[in-house]
Specification:
Blueprint lengths: L1 H13 L6 E2 L3 E3 L3 E3 L1 E2 L5 E4 L5 E3 L5 E4 L3 E9 L3 E10 L7 E2 L3 E3 L3 E3 L1 E2 L5 E4 L4 E3 L4 E4 L3 E11 L2 E12 L12 E3 L3 E3 L8 E4 L4 E3 L4 E4 L3 E11 L2 E12 L8 E3 L7 E4 L3 E5 L6 E3 L5 E3 L4 E4 L3 E11 L2 E12 L7 E2 L3 E3 L3 E3 L1 E2 L8 E6 L4 E3 L5 E4 L3 E11 L2 E12 L7 E3 L2 E3 L3 E3 L1 E2 L6 E4 L4 E3 L4 E4 L3 E11 L2 E12 L10 E3 L4 E5 L6 E7 L4 E7 L4 E7 L5 E5 L6 E9 L2 E9 L2
Parallel strand pairs: 2-9, 11-18, 19-25, 27-33, 35-42, 44-51
Antiparallel strand pairs: 1-4, 3-7, 5-8, 6-7, 8-9, 10-13, 12-16, 14-17, 15-16, 17-18, 20-23, 21-24, 22-23, 24-25, 26-28, 28-31, 29-32, 30-31, 32-33, 34-37, 36-40, 38-41, 39-40, 41-42, 43-46, 43-52, 45-49, 47-50, 48-49, 50-51, 53-54, 54-57, 55-56, 55-58, 58-59
Length: 577
């Protein structure tokens, strides 16, 4: 019976075939997976427990390390089968190196500590190929991805990069001309640059405020720098001074005094500062663009020379007198004068601008005074008043004949000082200008030839009266008429009609004389209008005429005081220098 059973079972086992192992071909390290076989009753084993272990009964496989392991399912004494399982690690993307900036149009190489992944970019700012060559396409930010994927999942390393364009500043905004000591602000629409200048003609701040230092040229630099390089925008700047003008010059020179031009004539004006313009609002001249002035009519004109630039303007001013030919007009005033008379002549003409007017005389019988047109008559006789008018356009003269008449002089009477009633005596007089004889009462009568006839007993004064257009002068002769039949003693008396003092000439120039009509010593004092004594003199009783030097006196009015005994005489004196 035993033999029968063995032969049956042994035959069946020898014909038994084990099935294939089923389950996943991969497992992640630290994870598990269940393997199976259609034939039960077998035992599970792995070829490398450091890579994977397996529950021998259930077929549950545990990933331990990474690698490949052979799993065997064995039915003892019957058969066994195997399968290969890959134990995979969890994917790690590692760290990306390269960047963090890329310039547009350039390529850099990215790398990762893992070598099993692939490269990608988050947008189109950067393009990256399979070997990690990243190219900048446009400015901005982008994320570079390195992605590692296996059966256990996926991991991504990220590197944010900035794509920069090469620096390119825009044109500098602001004036290309500035003034010395003035400041203006410059700008550039591209921010982040630095300001500079190439020399010391200007100075610029970090904010772009530029100040002119001295006249000349300078170049403003706006420099932008980034990781992709450096670029510069420039502005050539002119630094100017405030415009100037110099005093206007005249050709031909017109001499001292106002600048003048004659009607119909030209003068050439100039200014040492070039580039200006000439202008005037006057209508009595024409003014060319080159500064030539032509006189049109008499009057005044103001000429302006103007220089202008970016920094302002400056004017030089010149007043010009337009003269016509001088017109002396007509001299007016008295045609006759008296000795010592002061007269002022005038000219009725409206004198042109800038004329020099001079008054003269032709003979010397009159002399010019201290003011224009003023004359003093000195000596009898004819003379001529002359007025000479001169300007830049010529000279002309107006004149007026005059006659200086002498002052009347009655002279000094001489002869007898008595006459008997019914008789006559002859008196004489030194005057050469003639006169009229007369008496003060009817005690005597006198003829035109100076014959005195006694009429009635008593005192009488015989007078010779000399008169002309310059005044009246009288000589007096006291007489006594004696009774009829008297015996007369001839007495040659000389009687002066004057008493006190006489000053001549008056007004005086260089000297004047004081005639004293007395016989005592005299004290002479000259005082000014304030009463201050300016000179003192003494005249002896034998010195009746005193000559005094007037040149040491200032021109003006003085009072002459003469004290003679108990008598005091005063006369006004005019000094003209």
């Amino acid at each position: 019976m035993l033999m029968t059973l063995c032969s049956i079972f042994c035959f069946n086992l020898s014909s038994f075939a084990i099935g294939s192992i089923t389950g996943t071909a991969t497992v992640c390290a630290g994870d598990s997976t269940l393997l199976a076989d259609a034939t039960s009753g077998g035992v599970w084993t792995t070829s490398d427990p450091t890579v994977a272990t397996i529950n021998s009964a259930t077929g549950m496989l545990y990933g331990v390390g990474t690698g490949t392991v052979t799993v065997q399912y064995t039915i003892p004494g019957v058969d066994s089968t195997t399968t290969t399982i890959n134990v995979l690690d969890v994917p790690v993307a590692g760290l990306i190196s390269g960047g963090p900036t890329i310039c547009v149009g350039t390529t850099i190489v990215m790398s990762d500590t893992s070598v099993t992944g692939f490269w990608a970019a988050s947008n189109t700012n950067v393009s990256i190929n399979s070997i990690g060559e990243a190219s900048g396409n446009m400015s901005g930010n982008d994320s570079i991805w390195y992605i590692v994927t296996n059966g256990c999942g996926s991991d991504t390393a990220v590197n944010v990069v900035t794509v920069l364009s090469a620096p390119k500043p825009n044109s500098i905004l602001g004036p290309d001309t500035i003034c010395v000591r003035s400041t203006v602000a410059l700008a550039d629409s591209e921010a982040g640059g630095a300001w500079a200048v190439t020399n010391t003609n200007a100075a610029i701040t970090t904010l772009g405020n530029i100040t002119g230092a001295r006249v000349g040229m300078d170049t403003v630099l706006y420099v932008i720098t980034n990781a992709c390089g450096t670029d510069t925008s420039t502005l050539v700047t002119t630094i100017m001074n405030t415009p100037r003008t110099s005093p206007i010059t005249v050709t031909p020179p017109t001499g001292p005094g106002p600048v003048a031009v004659c009607v119909g004539a030209n003068i050439q004006l100039a200014d040492s500062i070039a580039g200006g313009t000439w202008n005037t609002t006057a209508t009595n001249v024409t003014l060319s663009a080159t500064g030539e002035v032509t006189g049109l009519m008499q009057g005044r004109a103001t000429i302006l020379y103007t220089t202008s630039n970016f920094c302002g303007s400056s004017n030089a001013r010149l007043n010009v007198i337009v003269d016509s030919l001088p017109d002396p007009g007509t001299v007016t005033g008295p045609a006759t004068l008296c000795v010592n008379q002061m007269v002022t002549y005038t000219d009725a003409s409206l004198l042109p601008f800038g004329e020099l007017v001079t008054w003269y005389e032709s003979v010397g019988n009159i002399q010019p005074g201290s003011a224009n047109g003023q004359y003093i008559a000195f000596t009898p006789g004819p003379d001529t008043v002359l007025v000479i008018v001169q300007n830049n356009c010529g000279i002309d003269t107006a004149f007026m004949p005059v006659v200086v008449n002498p002052l009347p002089s009655a002279g000094t009477i001489s002869g007898y000082d008595t006459v008997c009633v019914g008789t006559s005596v002859i008196l004489s007089d030194t005057t050469s200008t003639g006169g009229i004889w007369t008496t003060t009462n009817s005690n005597a009568a006198v003829t035109g030839s100076g014959i005195v006839e006694g009429i009635d007993t008593g005192s009488v004064t015989v007078m010779l009266i000399a008169a002309n257009s310059c005044g009246v002068d009288t000589a007096q002769w006291p007489m006594y008429v004696l009774p009829t039949g008297c015996v007369r003693t001839a007495v040659n008396n000389v009687y002066s009609p004057h008493t006190g003092i006489e000053i001549f000439p008056n007004p005086a120039y260089n000297t004047f004389n004081i005639m004293i009509y007395g016989n005592l010593e005299a004290a002479i004092t000259v005082t000014d209008v304030m009463g201050n004594a300016v000179a003192r003199y003494t005249a002896a009783n034998t010195q009746r005429e005193v000559t005094i030097d007037a040149s040491k006196f200032a021109a003006g009015t003085y009072m002459v005081r003469v004290s003679e005994g108990e008598n005091v005489y005063r006369e006004k004196l005019v000094i003209i220098q």
